[in-house]
Amino acid sequence: MCGCTHSTQDQALHLEGDPSLSAAPTSTLAPRKMPKSISVSKQLASVKALRKGSDLEKAIATIALIFRNSSDPDGKLGKATAKNLLQTQFRNFTEGQETKPKYKDLLSELDEHTENKLDFEDFMILLLSITVTSELLQNIWSVKIMK
After folding, report:
1. Where would a tag sit more exposed on the chain, N or C end, judged by fewer CB atoms within 10 A?
2. For the chain, how many structural domains are there in total?
3. 3 with 26: CB under 8 angstroms?
4. pLDDT in tens, 12-32
5. Domain of 42?
């Protein structure tokens, strides 16, 4: 989708080995050896950098963990797995979009993806694209904030 040579996941894993970056959060991903049966909330709690993290940081870390838990050993998602994640984990953003041209275009891009697998970066682009075209986003923006 984006054509980048390194996924965000690969970059995060690369940075973990650099001792000069030890003061910065090394990764929002679960350690490689963490069993997938451990809940995402427990995996999030195990990432020290997120203990005082913002809601946005925790949201992105949650996406990264769900991706990681669903990916193959190479850190990529097959198309069927990606579609399943969209239907199960992103249902409120995808519901009712199935007949809309923009949504159909996004899914057809997924079907035409030449590698047959998505890395984390491509998956994030897909999620953001679906978010931007969803009716749920329009509903969220129309919420009046009480002061």
Report:
1. C
2. 2
3. no
4. 333 333 333 333 333 444 444
5. 37-70
